[in-house]
Amino acid sequence: MFEKRYKDAFERASDERKERILEVGIEEFASKGYENANINVIAKNAEISIGLMYKYFATKEDLFVTCLQRGMQILDDALDEIMKSDDKLLIKAEKVIRTTCTHSKKNANYIKLYNEITSEKNDERARALAEEIESSTSKKYITSIAQALAKADVRGDLDPRLFAFFLDNLLMSLQFSYTCDYYRQRFEIYTGVNVDEMDEEKVVSQLLKFIESAFTFEK
Amino acid sequence: MFEKRYKDAFERASDERKERILEVGIEEFASKGYENANINVIAKNAEISIGLMYKYFATKEDLFVTCLQRGMQILDDALDEIMKSDDKLLIKAEKVIRTTCTHSKKNANYIKLYNEITSEKNDERARALAEEIESSTSKKYITSIAQALAKADVRGDLDPRLFAFFLDNLLMSLQFSYTCDYYRQRFEIYTGVNVDEMDEEKVVSQLLKFIESAFTFEK
Amino acid sequence: MFEKRYKDAFERASDERKERILEVGIEEFASKGYENANINVIAKNAEISIGLMYKYFATKEDLFVTCLQRGMQILDDALDEIMKSDDKLLIKAEKVIRTTCTHSKKNANYIKLYNEITSEKNDERARALAEEIESSTSKKYITSIAQALAKADVRGDLDPRLFAFFLDNLLMSLQFSYTCDYYRQRFEIYTGVNVDEMDEEKVVSQLLKFIESAFTFEK
Amino acid sequence: MFEKRYKDAFERASDERKERILEVGIEEFASKGYENANINVIAKNAEISIGLMYKYFATKEDLFVTCLQRGMQILDDALDEIMKSDDKLLIKAEKVIRTTCTHSKKNANYIKLYNEITSEKNDERARALAEEIESSTSKKYITSIAQALAKADVRGDLDPRLFAFFLDNLLMSLQFSYTCDYYRQRFEIYTGVNVDEMDEEKVVSQLLKFIESAFTFEK
DNA sequence: GATGAATGAGGTTTCATTCAT
DNA sequence: GATGAATGAAACCTCATTCAT
Lengths: 219, 219, 219, 219
What we know:
Number of helices of chain A: 11
Strand content of chain A: under 5%
Oligomer: homotetramer
Helix content of chain A: over 70%
Distance between the termini of chain A: 40 Å
Largest interface: A-B, 63 and 63 residues
Order of helices and strands of chain A: HHHHHHHHHHH
Mean pLDDT of chain A: 92
Shape of chain A: globular
């Protein structure tokens, strides 16, 4: 699913070590950002030499992307679980929103990595990353919505792709609001409540209300 | 409205020079990102010496924030124009959406600066920035929605602050989708169309439909 | 003839393996130069482990010198063939020049290795290398010229050693001109013709003319 | 004459400093070779900061080439002095040979730099360097020989360009023999005498004899 | 006010060599 | 004999910031 950005030697490393490196890497990249993350620090914290680090990953960028892929894979698996059910769209939406809220803090660092790439300035790299990261999710949303359209579960005058796009915008913003410093503060400015203290159910129910009319055609 | 991040000497500079410095700074920060932007290059392109630059701004960060404030001021003024009318909320929303679409590319660099700060990793700075940038906008949305609620123009069971939050999430995502490389590609993945070739009216009308039921109570 | 620069283990390796290692080594050193050649890459391309490489050669330098010796041996054998005949000196010279032209490209990599050591910066090593590489050839030239002198085939007022030196300078320069990038370009600058397209016979005959008066005494 | 490989800032530096940097650079590159030369060491010995070094030269390569050009310029000027006279070719040759012997040790480091580039492995760079370094010299030789040919001062059946090429090969080899460790040892192996103790006049006269018949047509 | 030369810490990356298995 | 994972010193280069003029 993802383009391999590590060297063969990394595959041969023990699971424990692979785990450790990515964990430490994710922590470093999430807390300092790509530019300020220090590969020597990651190696030191992962308790391997810098030379070995470069036996595993050709460049800092490759290490970063591999960390990112690991985080994205985990998030994608969670989404998969929900989307493969044959619940009605509104039910799926509710589940997705709730899962987003619940898991965002647990996987805060993964989402910070995701946030990190949204400001990629190199068009080529931005395109490649978006392709890797967004394709899978977008397909799931678009397919589900198209099915719902076919069953007339949603307004017929909505374009399923734009619909999916708007929906994911809301979810993505929510993810960031739970995890990234700037967005967390923004959340508080809008709602008046710190996101850690906000009643999750309220967010879920309000967001559902916000979007439900689009879903519940002629009801 | 914004905390002053430049030195007195900058105020005393000619308008033309102030203009040029910020313009060049915005271009550099927008195209390379904060970390990769080079303050010596900005000075050179603005045709002033690096020494003078440091007479105007104490640090690279101060220059960046001043550039950001300039961009945000311009975007905020445009929003002000719309929000101060006494149109119905749905009308305002339509105007805001359309303005967002229309102006995003024209002011692409401002939005890129905005995008840049959303991945600020220092909590202290992130809070300060969010406070500066989001307060004004959020107030306008919240006030408008509260007024609409009072007039029963929107569903009564919606929390106005969360409502404003969701709404702004959609608009913010749209802005980024028009301007930032990653989000532009993401837009194309979702919609199948490059954002530059997408029919603007379609985006406006679809987004309006997506949110209108929340607005148009008792229909 | 050459100082042994490999470990005993290398002798015990199969001929095929020895062959392969030196071949790959010569290719790497010739194409990248000593400093930029990578011994790990040589091991990989020779399909042996780096550990085994160090069982065969104590250092990178030893591997290089062994590659060099192999190349030099081959070149020396070719020269031997010519010099051991009892042709007149001018005939020998013609044969040597022609052979130099003909074989230079075939054995380009050997000559590149030779060229590589001419810029050795460590005096100790430079002396040792020169001793190894030049002794055999120089003896052949000096002996042949001394014999010709005894037979009055060449001008009697020429110092046979300097004569041999000048002669080899011409041949050495010609070798480099056929093989090393810089010297190839220099050849083209002087002659106006790319060395690959230059008529070999013209080079042979012109060079013979250039030196012949020294050879053909009493004309 | 040479492509500029330094930044404008270098031109603005004091002559003393420019002198110092190139001197130190030439010494470092000549004694250690390009790869092993250390830019930080050059900066330290030239008593400037490494940052400033990079304000003067964009890369290590640029610094090297600038050092090289400086050396080549000096050698070329010396040659110019000789070639612009209207001496007969044989007289010029004698002067050139003598000058080569005399000056080689004085300017040993320049010649070591020249030697350094003859093993350039990147074809593109090799071509560019050869073009810069050889064009001027080769023109002088070729022109002088062509004039001599016109005056029937040399054998009419010699190609002036090849003639110039062979001649320069002898001079180049001689230069290296006076300066570069490997070639110095080679000189001793051929002649039996250390080049520093060799009677210069003997070298001059023997080399003249070696080439004179080509020059002195029908005498 | 204005200049721009100067600094130097710090980060990424390479690769010869070792050694436990 | 054979492997290849592991090491870590060291080199090139960048750039925010200072300060003498």
